[in-house]
Design goal:
It is a single chain. The protein is α+β, with helices and mostly antiparallel strands and 222 residues long. It has a domain of 114 residues: Glutathione S-transferase Yfyf (Class Pi), Chain A, domain 2, CATH 1.20.1050. The chain is 52% helix and 6% strand. Strands 2-1-3-4 form a four-stranded mixed beta sheet, with helices on one face. Helix 1 packs parallel to helix 3.
């Protein structure tokens, strides 16, 4: 059986879960905390940063970007990065936007402070970081909404890895109730389409002990 070592509400782990779902690949999940990886895990991934995919033959594949590219190349139906050179460049640009800029400005400040710090049992959430995340998310939702209005999907006419990565981050932030969906209807409509995909629905059943999601989280129609 294919095994995914992951961390709850981690957008990079969620990205791989969605890709596996889109590829219709069966897998089991094992929780691994990035702040305290087990020695056995470190033997498979010396960086100690889930997600980590272990194939049925025992081959470990580490790093979320490498895993995503591997799955798309090894199991190309559907091909999520795109077929043509220029569309692929746009998909990769948006992947970089959400895994980079959005993660740094929003995900880390909101999910990192509200979920990961609590799981680590360390210091209290940094209110300054949370304010920074709440201040930054609006511009990202406005941009996402503009893309969704101009195109069928974020990167163009075809559903792609760009939609998956954006959904992975936004679903993590939505888990802590910090996405002002009603202020950004175009982004909300796009996310409703994403929530309806069979590959995304399992994420909506996630529930961390002591950190429940908001009531709308699993509602496909908000």
């Amino acid at each position: 059986m294919r095994t995914l070592y992951h961390s709850w509400v981690c957008p990079f782990s969620r990205k791989i879960r969605i890709i596996l779902g889109e590829k219709k690949l069966a897998f089991e999940m094992v929780v691994e905390h990035p702040w305290a990886p087990r020695p056995d895990y470190m033997l498979l991934d010396p960086a100690g940063r889930p997600p980590l995919l272990v194939e049925p033959d025992g081959t470990p594949i580490a790093d979320h970007t490498a895993i995503a590219e591997y799955l798309d190349e090894a199991f190309g139906d559907p091909l999520l990065i795109g077929l043509q050179v220029r569309p692929r460049a746009e998909v990769r640009r948006l992947i970089g936007w959400f895994d980079g800029k959005f993660n740094d400005e929003v995900t880390v400040n909101l999910v990192g402070e509200k979920v990961f710090k609590r799981q680590m049992g360390g210091s209290s959430p940094d209110s300054k970081a949370i304010r920074a995340g709440l201040s930054a998310i609006g511009a990202h939702l406005e941009y996402l909404g503009a893309l969704a209005e101009q195109r069928r999907w974020l990167a163009g006419d075809e559903f792609s890895m760009a939609d998956i990565v954006a959904c992975a981050h936004l679903s993590a932030v939505d888990y802590v109730g910090d996405v002002p969906w009603d202020q950004y209807p175009a982004a909300k409509d796009w996310y409703a389409r994403m929530k309806s995909r069979p590959s995304v629905r399992p994420l909506l059943t996630d529930s961390l002990p002591g950190i429940p999601p908001p009531a709308h989280y699993a509602n496909l129609d908000f």
